[in-house]
Each structure stands twice: as C-alpha cells, then as structure tokens.
Known about the structure:
By secondary structure, the first copy, chain A, is an all-beta fold. Chain A has a single domain (about 15-155), classed as Jelly Rolls, CATH 2.60.120.10. Chain A is built from one helix and 14 strands. Chain A is globular.
Amino acid sequence: MQGRGLTLPALDPAGVPAVAGSDYPEAFRALVERGQRQRLGDALGLKNFGVNLTRLPSGCASSLRHWHSRQDEFIYVLEGTLVLITDAGEQVLTAGMVAGFPAGRRDGHHLVNRSGSDALFLEVGDRSAGDEGEYPDHDMIWRNVDGDQAYVYLHRDGTAY
Amino acid sequence: MQGRGLTLPALDPAGVPAVAGSDYPEAFRALVERGQRQRLGDALGLKNFGVNLTRLPSGCASSLRHWHSRQDEFIYVLEGTLVLITDAGEQVLTAGMVAGFPAGRRDGHHLVNRSGSDALFLEVGDRSAGDEGEYPDHDMIWRNVDGDQAYVYLHRDGTAY
C-alpha cells in the first residue's frame, strides 16, 4: 500500500488500489460505473470520515444527483474540468475550486465530466449515523438498515429495487 | 466570499479570508503563528468536519506535535515540501502525498516547512464530541469544557496556563 518509501501515517496515493463499478440498481449504472475511487481515508485507518481520490473519465459522473440527511460532503478539484449540477443549475469547476454539501439540504448534486480528459478530485464525507437520502431526478431513495451497517436502494413508495 | 462567478454550493477559495495567529500559550506561538488558514468547510456551511486550506511559509509549523483522542485528521499536500514528524521520525511530503491520524493513536504529529518556499495543504478534521489530546514534546494538554463548546490548554498536572 505504500510508495516512494513513505510509511503510515504518511502515504503515497499511487499505492492505493482503485475501485471502479457501482452498486446502484442496474438501470442507473451506466453514467457512473467508469469512475475510479482510491479510498485514502480507509488506507490511512480513519473511521470518522471517508476520503476518496476519485478519477472520472470523459463522459462519467460522480453519482446520480443526490443529497444526504445527516452527512456532510466536500469536494476539491485537483485536475481537469467538472460540471457541478444542483437545483440552481450548472457551474464549471476547475483545479483548485471546491464545493460543499451540508447535511439535510435537500438540493441534489453531482459532478459530470463533459470534457475530453480525465478529471481528478478529492471527496470527503463523514459517517454520521442514521444517514439517508434521495435521488431527486429518479424514483430512488436510500435508507440505512442493520443499525447503519448497510443501506438499501428503494423506490419512493418504499418497495425494493 | 465568492470568486470567479461561483456561487454556493461551489466556492473559489481565493474569496475566503485567511486567518493567521495562534491561541496557544504565548511561549508556544512562535513556531506556528505565521501559518494562514482559510476555513473552507465553514465557508461552505459544513458542520460535521472542518476543512482548512493552510499555507505555511518557510520556517513555520502546522501546530505543535499533538494527537487527538476522538477526532480523525487527514492532510493532502497541494504545493511545496513539508516534513512530517511523528514518534517514528521524519518523512518528506511533496505535492500529492497524504497523511492521516486516526483518533486515539497516541503518536504526536505535525508538519514543518523547512524549505525556502511556501507550502500549501488541505487539512480535514471531524468534530466528534469529547475530544481531548496531548502535546508529547511539551508540558501541555488540552481538554474540552462547556459541553464541547470550548477547550482549554493545561499543564500535565491539570493546572491552567
């Protein structure tokens, strides 16, 4: 897991495996499944929040547009150009720009790479208990189950996917 | 607070005020007081964790070497060269390198800029309640008071600074 001779608590992200794919219901996977996440926070032994170094190839989105009830999110753009989409519309973010999504604000967000090159960003989210949320553009919500040990995707009427 | 035409939930850090100085007891301020922090998380309305964009000029440290009992910390180096000092010794971190300090690990850490140029990094820390900690190189600890609304610096024997 280490590179350039660094040892924990320091880490070269180049040594952290990248995870691709999506656990969304099949119908929603195409837009997001090529994104690659390196789970830096987990690799560093952090528990209270997650930190991913996420690479989105051209045409890929970070997620479906969504919001969280209890967990904050933060992103910092490192490379490339991303379009942030919220209820208010679209904004173009380049290297050094940031965005934040406070828990409980019912304004769905996601990042889409419409450029011809990869985009790279850091994403941070805390792990406050009892989180749930919605995908305002789709008939989908998520709810935590098993005492926050897992979550499920549901239709808005509560039926399972 | 906004720049380049971005509006919340997006933000250009250039529009966020930089805060310098230190609330350490006077004897401990010299090493850290020239560091400048832009409180991006606060500017974005986040509550569950803080995100600072921190600039350390040559000769400046991020803090005294310290550890937290309940709060995780993460750093991502954006520019320059920083020396990470922990119980195990020193490691040199350059742009793109990260470090993480899990809550409760009693290994004091800080970052020192021994180069001739500024260093810039992101630092993230959650706000878990009941946090306290120690400065292993000094006769100093901190304890939260007033139901986590404030903290105090104490000598190891519990007497006030």
